[in-house]
Amino acid sequence: MPEPLKTPFYSQHLNAGGKLVEFAGWSLPIHYGSLVEEHQAVRTDAGVFDVSHMTVSDIRGDSASRLHTLCANDLSKLRDNEALYGCLCTDNGGVIDDIIVYRLANRHYRVISNAGTRHSVLDWLKANNVEDCATVAAGDLAMLAVQGPNAIDKTQRALTSVLDQSVDLTHLASFNCVYVGDVFVARTGYTGEDGVELIVPKANAESLWAALVDAQVEPCGLGARDTLRLEAGMSLYGQDLDDVHTPFESGVGWTVDLSNPDREFIGRTVLQAQKESLSTSIRIGVELTGRGVLRAGQPVHCQGQAVGEVTSGTYSPSLKKTIGLARVQRVGAPEVDDNDAQLTVVIRNKPVEAVRVKLPFYRQP
Amino acid sequence: METPGDLKFAESHEWARLNDDGTITVGISHHAQEQLGDLVFVEVPEVDASVDAEDAIAVVESVKAASDIYAPVTGTVVAVNEALAESPEIINDSPFDDGWIFTLQPDNKDDLNALMDAPEYDEMVENA
Fold this sequence. Notes:
heterodimer, A: alpha+beta, Gyrase A, domain 2, Elongation Factor Tu (Ef-tu), domain 3, 6-stranded antiparallel barrel, about 20% helix, B: alpha+beta, 7-stranded antiparallel beta sheet, 4 helices, 10 strands
């Protein structure tokens, strides 16, 4: 095994008491002492996550036009400084990755894709003639997500001190981005809270981290990132999303834009057919009513019949319940389609009562 | 937290305490609870169950993951810590006392001698 990669915040993690683990080839903190406290900090105040393991690629010119044919969401909806969430799909409609695309200018996009899919995504872009594609080298990206009800206020304070200029992010709309000095600021995130994602020049990484900590933003690890996104009903690539299931089968069918009949994109034929005939499986939210914790891979039954499996599960620190996402068959399992459907999840060979619930599990009050 | 000197330890981080009545109480070490993080669920064995040494007979789950708890010796379960059902975090707060998980009547209490003593366990953790 090669040595795990280090982000520009590696020594900050060590100094903050981060318990480092290997994740998708990177050395990142799972927590800095208490996952639950970090989770609560994001729900009630503000937390900062090192997300420098993500893959950032700037795509321009004709290559930007080609990106339109690779994304199942319609990039022509974007105006400058707006972002869109969507899937890159195979010919069969399987999801290669879920990405966020920012339009920085006409025919100039910034694509954020996952760490675990770095090579498959870059290979896919290349194979489809997206050649004018500048990807930040692994280890050079300094990207932080600041999330929580006080994230905007505290980020403004931190940026004001780092850049030595007054910064106002209150007018930055959700899913919009802006450059403040040389800091890229996007009002996006993966926690279900308000907040921003920041890309800074590597040389400023240390001072930005210090300024955020000074503003009392709590360092948060991968563990809290996972519980927060799951409470918000957001999918994780590799668990809830993969290349053998379509966006319709993974709960992100809303990102497939078929409204323009003339728009060609890879996977359209299969996705069009599936949308019209309805997918055979769907993603649902599950809450365990019996005792235990939902985990990926546990079988889900409905009316005595195996209908699918849990793709992500955890104990929810906000709801004090155990929750999970599951992919279940629709055909032959009539009751699964109803919210409140009674389910059984098999945990360590024992059936445990569960119920289908609406997503997201948690919404900011 | 200091490792209590009267306990024996398994490599899988369970501690075992020989009680005056010859039973053995079992929990997980301070180091183990620290590694697991905030515990949210504990599945205890059934009272009267016969168990073999190294059988997985209980489960503790943190927010992140589930871990099996192994019987340190062969015997019969005589008591379980019912308080853990409602408050699994007791193990985080008091791993060596209030956070005990189950008590066994060992078939042979000399089996405990196969386990590590406190200094040996501390050394294992330090060198891990």
